[in-house]
Amino acid sequence: MSECIFCKIINGEFNTEFVYEDEYAVVFKDINPKADTHLLVVPRKHVESLNELDDEVLLGKLMMTVKKAAKAAGLKSYRTVINTGKEAGQEVFHLHIHILAGSIKL
Ligand code: 5GP
Ligand code: ZN
After folding, report:
1. CATH fold for the domain made of 5-104
2. Of these four, 6, 22, 31, 32, which has the most CB atoms within 10 Å of its CB?
3. What is d(CA 49, CA 89) in angstroms, rounded to the nearest whole number?
4. How high is the mean pLDDT in each 10-residue block of the chain (106 residues)?
5. What residue spans define the domains of the chain?
């Protein structure tokens, strides 16, 4: 069993609501939101960070998932953030893309 918190969420261990999902990724609300809307786009496949990702197709799919999840959430204007590495503020070492909209405190 994986120790990774996002893998556990993907596996449904915490009954986390997915606001959007597709073949490649799940999207759920950040537990500690830094904006009026703060979503996380998380690939189903465990990849530690952008530095460990070498799958160009998956990277493209993830960005398309960002767009689709934002649209599904009714967002026209939003910021995307990927923290890569501890010094840059990465806390969860399973690649994810933040979607932030509204009043952003980041
Ligand atoms: P990072 O700093 O790694 O880029 O972002 C990790 C994000 O995951 C943080 O914004 C944090 O609030 C969020 N987070 C950490 N643990 C959980 C959790 O168990 N559930 C949810 N929904 N978000 C989490
Ligand atoms: Zn993981």
Report:
1. HIT family, subunit A (3.30.428)
2. 6
3. 12
4. 92 97 97 98 98 98 98 97 98 98 92
5. 5-104
